[in-house]
Amino acid sequence: MVATLTVNLSERSYPILFGVDLAKQVRAKVNELTQAGRKVVVITDRHLARKQADGLHAMFGEVPMLVLEPGEETKSLTELGRVLDFCAEHRVDRAGALFAVGGGVIGDLGGFAAAAFLRGIEFYQIPTTLLAMVDSSVGGKTGINLKAGKNLVGAFHQPRGVFVATGLLATLPAREFAAGMAEVIKYGLLGDANLLEQLEKKPLTVESEELAAVIHRCCEIKAGVVEADERETAKEGGRALLNLGHTFGHAIEQVTGYGVYLHGEAVSIGLAAAARLSAKLGYIGEAEVTRVEKVLAAHALPVRLRAELPLSGLMAAAARDKKVRAGMPRFVVMKTLGDAATQSGIEPALVEACFREVGAV
Ligand SMILES: NC(=O)c1ccc[n+]([C@@H]2O[C@H](COP(=O)([O-])OP(=O)(O)OC[C@H]3O[C@@H](n4cnc5c(N)ncnc54)[C@H](O)[C@@H]3O)[C@@H](O)[C@H]2O)c1
Ligand SMILES: O=C(O)C(=O)C[C@@H](O)[C@H](O)[C@H](O)COP(=O)(O)O
Ligand SMILES: [Zn+2]
């Protein structure tokens, strides 16, 4: 069975297709484009080229494919250059399309290359990690990292379609599945108390009967938030809520060097820190902080740093967060579990205390 959810953004609207195996649907889209004389290229990574070789062939046949190195370091200016050169080499013109098959790294990089090449070509997302299925493939945030910080260069560029084929998760390593669960738990914490309770009662695994419904629910939440504030310009709340745990998490990723903590692992520690901040501000109590830590730990996620990190570096990285407005840091806090809000004017000492409580020195 194939289900569809539309992300409604007027002329930039697009469908998200959900199914176990969507090779036929992807192939049909590729054929439609190529039969109309349009150039199609694919980017993926080396793990997928090996573990999903048959699926990739079923979807793309002989379509030119660039295979990149897996990992966060691929979200770089150098690899962006490789993708752009690949498009040029295959004479992709303005009617061309790029398919990004992979996790958030390939999706963010491919989406940004598509936004930049010839000032913008179409792109399609085929997410292959849980994280990409519930979060990165939807919403059009594309980009790469700089040494100075996560996702500091990028563009808002919506895909033309997203194909969420859950069968692809069969080859995903357990650590990567857990990393995706951090973003799933984030959705519960920011806007769906029922989802949170469901995860608390019964941790989700790749075998769970509920997995497809949970992925669909996360996409529904994300689509709703993005439809209301596509470019994160709302003064309060809005798309910035999807950044719950990320001011702390991105700082951890940047200070450790990309890839030491998976994005989802850093976000997990960030969610624990955000819960502590929310408690210090008087919104939630210690019992709620414990609930947040327990649900993360029940999904094999860290709630503290694996090794000490310097507080000064973490604070400097947090100060470069894109949510900063006129020099004022903005944090996403939990008013209750299931309802988040943005807040500025938070004393740096409170943020420092939260970083310390998760293991910074
Ligand atoms: N644009 C957004 O809205 C958004 C949202 C969340 C995260 N992100 C970004 O996403 C990135 C993290 O993405 P990720 O967690 O998907 O990591 P990833 O893209 O690095 O993929 C994780 C690993 O799993 C492997 N893999 C992927 N699919 C597989 C499969 N089906 N079978 C076997 N191996 C597979 C990859 O080769 C890689 O080694 C970060 O850069 C983060 O900043 C972006
Ligand atoms: O889609 C969004 O908006 C998000 O914030 C989703 C996050 O999970 C994701 O990690 C995103 O890439 C963070 O964006 P950034 O603007 O903080 O770099
Ligand atoms: Zn994220």
TrEMBL record:
Cofactor(s) recorded in Swiss-Prot or TrEMBL: Co(2+); Zn(2+); NAD(+)
Pathway: Metabolic intermediate biosynthesis; chorismate biosynthesis; chorismate from D-erythrose 4-phosphate and phosphoenolpyruvate: step 2/7
Gene Ontology biological process terms, A to Z: amino acid biosynthetic process; aromatic amino acid family biosynthetic process; chorismate biosynthetic process
One Pfam entry name: DHQS_C
Reactions that this protein is recorded to catalyse: 7-phospho-2-dehydro-3-deoxy-D-arabino-heptonate = 3-dehydroquinate + phosphate
Binding site for NAD(+): 104-108, 128-129, 141, 150
3-dehydroquinate synthase N-terminal domain residues: 66-178
Gene3D superfamilies, alphabetized: 3.40.50.1970, Dehydroquinate synthase-like - alpha domain
Record's GO cellular component terms: cytoplasm
Highest taxon listed in the record's lineage: Bacteria
Record note on cofactor: Binds 1 divalent metal cation per subunit. Can use either Co(2+) or Zn(2+).
Signal peptide positions on this chain: none
Key words of the record: Amino-acid biosynthesis, Aromatic amino acid biosynthesis, Cobalt, Cytoplasm, Lyase, Metal-binding, NAD, Nucleotide-binding, Zinc
Localisation per UniProt entry: Cytoplasm
InterPro entries: Dehydroquinate_synthase (IPR050071), DHQ_synth_AroB (IPR016037), DHQ_synth_fam (IPR030963), DHQS/DOIS_N (IPR030960), DHQS_C (IPR056179)
Role: Catalyzes the conversion of 3-deoxy-D-arabino-heptulosonate 7-phosphate (DAHP) to dehydroquinate (DHQ).
Protein name: 3-dehydroquinate synthase
Gene giving rise to this polypeptide: aroB
